[in-house]
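can u do me a favor
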């Protein structure tokens, strides 16, 4: 099946690791020209090297923090100068803060919105004019299952609403941009195994008692006992399908990718007694 992604220009935020990196790999394998962004330069350089080593497509990188509007201006200008167009925008970068409601600070609340919903809104607002000039495009927002499920993970009062806003943003934007031939969809991962995120959750659960060897052994046991859990590639495949011409009549949708495994790794690790 031809996904018709050859020579398409794609911008992927959070493209140096996890779901974003897997997405960048798959887009490049389909012959797309990919621009990845993230904050850390070393990881970006590694990602570019990895993707180039596969020998397909084309990949470039620019360091940027999606929570900083001026950085989003730089990403947009870079994409325009380098490629002259953007066909696909994957708003993937994002993260969660999980703590009891009364412990959420104003900073947590504002950052939760800034890195998730505001970042998707702001970058889309910058890239859409370029898409309109080129006659159309595709936007894929990456949300998370916490958008639907109360207390999953526990302490989601800050992140859950920020991720839920991304779903609603998707439906509104799809409706508004339909006449401009721009499709907007959302991918909603359940728990997928990305090492950085798992380590973050394990550190939060263990606090001062964190021990890497113990944490890794527990992780292995939990994964074996409570799976199957997904991986970044399975989410990336869904993103790439939605970006492709094979999803040309899918618009304004939010697609849950969780293998029907409704468990929360954060909840399991916090209650772990094995
Ligand atoms: N993994 C899961 O189980 C899961 C579940 C539900 C939803 N999601 C969603 O899926 C998306 C990707 O998650 P992931 O698990 O693949 O994450 P990950 O493995 O932790 O990778 C995150 C990527 O985003 C970049 N990033 C983080 N903060 C950034 C910022 N402020 N500005 C620019 N880039 C930033 C990171 O690089 P730098 O740190 O160098 O910037 C990295 O490239 C997120 O929106 C997340 O909420 C993931």
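np, heres the sequence
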């Amino acid at each position: 099946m031809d996904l018709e992604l050859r020579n398409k220009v794609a911008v992927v935020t959070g493209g140096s690791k996890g779901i974003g990196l897997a997405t960048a790999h798959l887009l490049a394998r389909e012959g797309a020209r990919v621009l990845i962004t993230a904050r850390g330069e070393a990881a970006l350089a590694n990602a570019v090297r990895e993707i180039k080593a596969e020998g397909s497509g084309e990949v470039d990188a620019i360091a940027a923090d999606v929570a900083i509007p001026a950085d989003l201006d730089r990403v947009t200008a870079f994409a325009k100068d380098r490629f002259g167009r953007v066909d696909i925008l994957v708003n993937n970068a994002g993260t969660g803060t999980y703590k009891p409601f009364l412990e959420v600070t104003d900073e947590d609340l504002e950052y939760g919105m800034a890195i998730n919903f505001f970042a998707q809104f702001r970058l889309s607002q910058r890239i859409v004019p370029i898409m309109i000039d080129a006659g159309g495009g595709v936007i894929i927002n990456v949300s998370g299952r916490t958008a639907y499920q109360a207390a999953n993970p526990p302490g989601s009062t800050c992140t859950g609403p920020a991720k839920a806003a991304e779903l609603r943003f998707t439906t509104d934007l799809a409706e508004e941009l339909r006449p401009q031939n721009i499709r907007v969809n959302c991918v909603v991962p359940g728990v997928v195994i990305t090492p950085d995120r798992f380590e973050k959750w394990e550190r939060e659960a263990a606090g001062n008692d964190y021990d890497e060897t113990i944490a890794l052994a527990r992780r292995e046991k939990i994964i074996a006992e409570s799976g199957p859990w997904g991986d970044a590639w399975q989410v990336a495949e869904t993103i790439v399908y939605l970006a492709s011409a094979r999803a040309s009549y899918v618009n304004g949708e939010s697609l849950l990718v969780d293998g029907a495994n409704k468990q929360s790794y954060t909840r399991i690790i916090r209650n772990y007694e094995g």
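The longest helix spans residues 106-134. hope that helps!!
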